[in-house]
Amino acid sequence: MPEDFYRIKRLPPYIFSEVNTLKAKARAAGRDVIDLGMGNPDGPTPAHIVAKLIEAVQNPKTHGYSVSRGIAGLRRACAGYYARRFGVELDPEREIIVTLGSKEGLANLAQAITAPGDIVLVPNPCYPIHAFGFIMAGASVRHVPVGPEFDFLSELKKAVRHSIPAPLAIVLNFPANPTAQTVDLDFYAEIIDFCRRHNIVVLSDLAYAEIYFDGKPPPSILEVPGARDIAVEFTSLSKTYSMAGWRIGFAVGNERLIAALSRVKSYLDYGAFTPIQVAATAALNGPQECIAETRARYQARRDVIIDGLHQAGWDVPPPEATMFAWAPIPPQFRAIGSLAFAKLLLERANVAVSPGIGFGEYGEGFVRIALVENRQRLRQAARNIKAFLSGRNAVINLHDGTRDLAAAK
Description:
Aspartate Aminotransferase, domain 1, disordered C terminus, alpha/beta, globular, Aspartate Aminotransferase, domain 2
């Protein structure tokens, strides 16, 4: 048997596992670790959604196989959401498919449309599945730098100019994980115009559509006239309704791409458990005040942690959207890199964050801070970090033993 299988060989070591291992050891030793690493919503799913799940699961007729493309009522509910929120009219039969979260949908669409050697353009830094879904499908990924310091459209044009063969597709993710960057409809219009001229498929991940703060609600790329000719968009109930573990999302848009995804999924799964789909329908069709409450909760947390970090001497820009802050490493620690700095925060401040390098090489120099603890815990995290940055936590000893650095005074 080969030592490494083909697709496994294409996957690098999971860099977050190093921090996760240290976090587990710290907790096993009895330390109170404040975990701001994984973007796992800590709030409960709204009660009316849970009640609908319980009602549906008590009907034994719902216990059998479901439908891989999603029950009709849920697809209609998704169409209703897009009409209310974005003014986009979708055909539930041809332009919508239910996915097991947006992550599964994107990975299976990659399998459906990608041939070995195809080039796919992916933002960097990015959520790992945006790149590795296509790498596992046999594609070659060309990274397009993204973030406040880059002109994404210029970088995109450069990438297309230097890609041989021409790119098959581009992945977009705004509001962005991990950078929290947002864009407007004019940006999407330029993307659609450019990609249409170069025959490039557009795959938009809109998982954080409802987690926004000070500005306008993030748009959908499908609001651009003609976008459905080349684009498909992924959305999710995970963050909007605190339903991460339920694994329900959607792919919507271009009929040909939706049909390709439907064909692949028909071989791979029977869809989510029917009571979960019924409850998801209740989420989209029912009271929506819970979305505003969730948004307000994340905004209050954002304000607490950003203010606390500023008081600690760490200048972190407040995110306009998502449940993350994208934090540049303090200058005195920049030389050691994001992984070593994340380890130091865990060891010296009992705060777990995600190293930016785990999202791609352009993520180096940053860490991602998730707003997944209550405000009291976030204040404690900021106090712990302040003690660390002020030098009250003695000497920093790097894991590799190559150097010791005195904490900043």
